[in-house]
Amino acid sequence: MSDGKKNDADVKREDSEEEELPEIEEQLVTKSYTGKFGKSKVAYTATAATQVIERDDDKKAVFFYVAYTKDDADPADRPLIFAFNGGPGSSTVWLHLGLFGPKRVEFDDDGFPVGVPGRLVDNEYSILDVADVVHVDAIGTGLSRGMPKDKEKEYHHFSKDIEAFSQFIVSYLSRNDRWGSPVFLAGESYGTTRGAAVAADLFDKHGLQLNGIILISVALNFQTIAMDQAAGYLFHRGNDLPFLTHLPTYAATAWYHGALARKHQTKDLSSFLEEVEDFALGQYWSALALGDQIPDQERKKVVRKVAEYTGLSEDYVDRYDMRIHIMRFCKELLRSQRKTVGRLDSRYTGYDRVADGDNIESDPAANLTTGPMASALNAYLRTELGFKTDDFYEILSMEINQRWDYEEFKNRYVDTSEKLREVMSKSQRMRVFVANGYYDLATPHLAAEYTFSHMGLEPEIRKNVSMEYYEAGHMMYVHRPSLQKLASDMREFVEASL
Question: pLDDT tens digits, residue range 324-365?
Fold first, then answer.
């Protein structure tokens, strides 16, 4: 007779049953299309699918992706780009329906919402004429999920995210017979943080040598862009570097909104910014380094110049000790008009409940672009591509952003620029393309320049890095002239990298 007690074997059996994951059925739908991209007419297949990967501890993840591949192309000659956004809690809707995909969300030429929100138009600027593109969502974003669901947060971790993306890429290459293809990565924002580390991981663990990496709105060294887990978007006390790197973008923003004296407003943007950058890297940087040891007369000169270049009052610059945080600038520049300017793209303006205060209630740039992207993506997947699911497509998860685990960077800033230097030095033919928006306060262009000039790349390797600049913000491709230029620049980059 049983005494009602469970023996060790029974307990182990129950634990095993609880941990056992159900079989996950992958989904895949395909459709054939023809489109004109650049100057070429291309017959291609669109694939919306899920792909399961397994970790060593038997946990699984389901990656969702949308791929566009040219029909009847020789894989050995056909470049393949894996594209992902950042956040890190952002789906890849932005690169998908803003830049690489055959359809894009309609904005006016300046990048502002127009007509019915989320309307899709043909994307003649897509580079599908020169490369296939796979848009993949990070775990917990889009339709990508961790299994079991309650363990999904384990993927919201710097190194585990890198491992998962590398595993997805290797699996995709194997399943689709693409190991012979020239392979590229394309990341935006935190996607550039991820991209640098994934490139190194693919080379070191899988022997995969990339032809190139496209970095859009660079976030490799968080010390340069004010990102600190405790301080949020307010710059971390004791780190003066972001004040330096943001100053030219403040100046560009003031120039765009006509907030400067006529002598600066009449200059073209690029020459004006050269002047501001010389000041930022010289007199301004020296003044910040001196702290309260700066002589009074020198301090007054610097305060006057900062005010002159940013459109802020000398009194305001003086009260904040020559150090203006992003959100304070966004709130102050157009305060007299009761308007705020965007962080992701400072061309956008918005309204807060009150004009007073040191912080904006929300980012006007995000407010005016996220909705159209969300509507367009959900309609496109379900009605155009025919991917049927009741699951919610997670456009952007602030919860993931806030809980992301940077375990490897405890008590220091996140920095993957060294990973990029390592893989560029090992894979010496790999090229890197960097796209910067002049109105991007999230990842300012001077921060990207500073990062690359401090990576310690050998001159022969440094030649493999090319940088371009666009008169728009973080998602510069919503601005039609910038989209056109970026597409042209990427085509040249891909072809030069073969």
Answer: 999 999 999 999 999 999 999 999 999 999 999 999 999 999
> In Å, how far are 151, 186, 342 from 82, measured between CA atoms?
26, 6, 29
Taking the C-alpha atoms of residue 467 and residue 446, their distance in angstroms, rounded to an integer, is: 11
Q: How many Å apart are CA 49 and CA 186, to the nearest integer?
A: 20
Render pLDDT for 424-455 as a digit per residue (tens, 0 to 9).
999 999 999 999 999 999 999 999 999 999 99
**Axis crossing angle, helix 158-175 with helix 190-206, rounded to the nearest 10:** 60
How buried is residue 250: exposed, middle or buried, by Cβ count under 10 Å (0-12/13-18/19+)?
Answer: buried
Q: Are strands 349-350 and 431-437 parallel, antiparallel or unpaired?
A: unpaired
Distance CA 176, CA 156 (A): 27
> Which residue(s) pair with 212 in the sheet?
184, 431
**All domains of the chain in start order, with CATH:** 23-225+370-496 (3.40.50.1820), 241-362 (no CATH)
pLDDT at 13: 44
Question: Where does 280-356 have alpha helices with state H?
Answer: 285-290, 296-310, 314-319, 326-332
